Amino acid sequence: MERMIEVEGLARHFGPLVAVDDVSFSVSRGEVLGFLGPNGAGKSTTMKMITGFLAPTRGRVAVAGNDIARKALAAKAAIGYLPEGAPAYGDMTPASFLAFAARARGLGRAAARAGIERAVEQVELQAVLEQPIETLSKGYKRRVGLAQAILHDPPVLILDEPTDGLDPNQKHQVRNLILGMARDKAIIISTHILEEVGAVCSRALIIAQGRIVADGTPRELEAMSRYHNAVQIRVAAEGAEAALAGLPGVERVVALGEGAYQVFPTAGASITEAVAGHARAQGWEVEQLVVEAGRLDEVFRRMTTGEQDVPESLPAPGEEAA
Amino acid sequence: MSRMLTVFRRELASYFNTPLAYVFIIIFLFLTGIFTFYLGNFFGRGQADLKPFFSFHPWLYLFLVPAIAMRLWAEERKSGSIELLLTLPISLADAVLGKFLAAWAFTAIALACTFPMWLTVAYLGDPDHGVIVAGYLGSLLMAGGYLAIGSAVSSLSKNQVIAFVITVVVCFLFTVSGAPIVLDAFTAWAPQRVVDIVASLSFLTHFEAITNGVLDLRDIFYFVSMIGFWLFANLVLVDARKAA
Ligand SMILES: Nc1ncnc2c1ncn2[C@@H]1O[C@H](COP(=O)(O)OP(=O)(O)OP(=O)(O)O)[C@@H](O)[C@H]1O
Ligand SMILES: [Mg+2]
């Protein structure tokens, strides 16, 4: 696999503040890497260094084999970048803005026209092409930024919160767009929407206070959850809680009310068989039995705050989204 | 080069996207008219030249040019579009130069709109056209000097008003550095050589030399190196301050 983005020991200080602290990773063609992390974690700062906007305090970045400090123009030519907040020239129309971006990227007349046409279609900008950007709604501004990032069909895409401010249809569309482009590009996106990680990312980094605290595929990250392989069961049976707690591999049982229980395994254990077998043997009337893959939001919270959050009594299923 | 032209074209077009260009040109023409005809006693002098017209340019530019220059980098930093501009495959030098040249071209357009003045003197009398051409050239060079200062200063702040005020002050100092108001501050303690150097930095002295019709290469070189120096400062400042 071709390593398109290589980051080594990257650090950036702002005065006494260490915004990014010794971050290393690489992204290959075909990968979509997700940056997760609380506000101020250093996601955008890292992206600004990869795209050559900010000089790192320490460390090295290479894009498509070009060192961003020494071969800046070649590296930048390989990148499509959507900066945080999708800044643009407000007094321009999307049409003239995209034409400017295409020229600045050195596209010829025909290539520019084709690239702009394709990008406009992909983010559905047709309706507002001649309206000054400053008068566009937030979501349309974001789409203009996205179109600008993809119009030259770059091998590397860096998108800072690409779906922020988009309506649900557009979110869906942009995720599909990213998935569609993923095959032959190396892509980094940052997001605060955890379900997006499972939907588009092949790998994710959780960043907190400038450091990488977790790195893995969405499945691997979910598996780090206390809920990984936990079983939720709803039965109408006397003494079920005590019986479940006594099963091999069970660490703890939490009553959810109305005959529902959350059964947590000890680390690494799989208790599905044990729980299902016991229920069958006892002749319990099982109304529901669900095995969880894990909860990314719980992993995220634990990794970024150090909080252990499996409470004594859990909210009823379906309410925990809050 | 072509990347620099891309920046240049976008910038120049952006002046005309907003009312700024039209307001500026109208005010410029209005003020040059007032200054020349009333304060400069254009008709009463009984001479067919544009001396009174050009003699007010330094003072007009002192306020009008910073108004053009203040937005060059301050706006870009305020809106965040600088992040877009500087992550395009365009060198910083191309960006600085493209923006500066666009602003300069715009002042050239405004200056060109004063051509009726020239027509008027040509109609009324028999002016020395060489002197007038020199005057226009000097005026344009001086505007470039002011603009380069303004462009560098505007990269220091996200606030256009602050950029404007600081630019006016710096430009004022360079305008009058040959006058007693500045020189007196130096004569008290500095050796004569330093005083001479300060005096030689005056926009006014060099501009007047050119508008007198004496095209001395040293005066042209003065403005060109002034522009070069401030654009270099601009480059360094943008690089240092872009993230802040
Ligand atoms: N120009 C700057 N000067 C000083 N501090 C800065 C600057 N830019 C960023 N920081 C600080 O660096 C830290 C990381 O900021 P960054 O924008 O990278 O966070 P983020 O992970 O993108 O957060 P968010 O999710 O809110 O977008 C923050 O504490 C921020 O205040
Ligand atoms: Mg951010």
Architecture overview:
The complex is a heterodimer of chains A (322) and B (244). The C terminus of chain A is likely disordered. Chain A has two domains: 220 residues, Rossmann fold (3-Layer(aba) Sandwich), CATH 3.40.50.300; 64 residues, Alpha-Beta Plaits. Helices cover 33% and strands 27% of the residues of chain A. Chain A is built from eleven helices and 14 strands. In chain A, a hairpin with a 2-residue loop joins β9 and β10. Chain A is of the alpha/beta class and 322 residues long. By secondary structure, chain B is mainly α. Chain B has one domain. The longest helix of chain B has 26 residues. The two termini of chain B are 29 Å apart. The relative contact order of chain B is 0.14. The mean pLDDT of chain B is 87. Chains A and B meet through α2 and α3 of A and α1 and α6 of B. Bound molecules: adenosine-5'-triphosphate (ATP) and magnesium ion. Magnesium ion (MG) binds next to α1 of chain A.
List strands and helices in order, with pairings:
The complex is a heterodimer of chains A (322) and B (244).
Chain A: E1 3-14, E2 17-28, E3 32-36, H1 43-50, E4 58-63, E5 66-67, H2 72-77, E6 79-82, H3 94-104, H4 109-122, H5 138-150, E7 156-160, H6 168-182, E8 186-190, H7 194-200, E9 203-208, E10 211-216, H8 218-223, E11 231-235, H9 240-245, E12 250-257, E13 260-265, H10 272-282, E14 286-291, H11 296-305
Parallel strand pairs in A: 3-8, 3-9, 6-7, 7-8
Antiparallel strand pairs in A: 1-2, 1-4, 4-5, 9-10, 11-13, 11-14, 12-13
Helix pairs in contact in A: 3-4, 4-5
Chain B: H1 2-17, H2 20-39, H3 51-55, H4 57-69, H5 71-79, H6 81-85, H7 92-112, H8 115-124, H9 129-154, H10 160-176, H11 180-187, H12 192-200, H13 203-211, H14 217-241
Bound molecules: adenosine-5'-triphosphate and magnesium ion.
Can you give keywords for this protein?
heterodimer, A: 322 residues, alpha/beta, Rossmann fold, Alpha-Beta Plaits, 2 domains, 6-stranded mixed beta sheet, 4-stranded antiparallel beta sheet, 11 helices, 27% strand, disordered C terminus, B: 244 residues, mainly alpha, 14 helices, binds adenosine-5'-triphosphate, binds magnesium ion
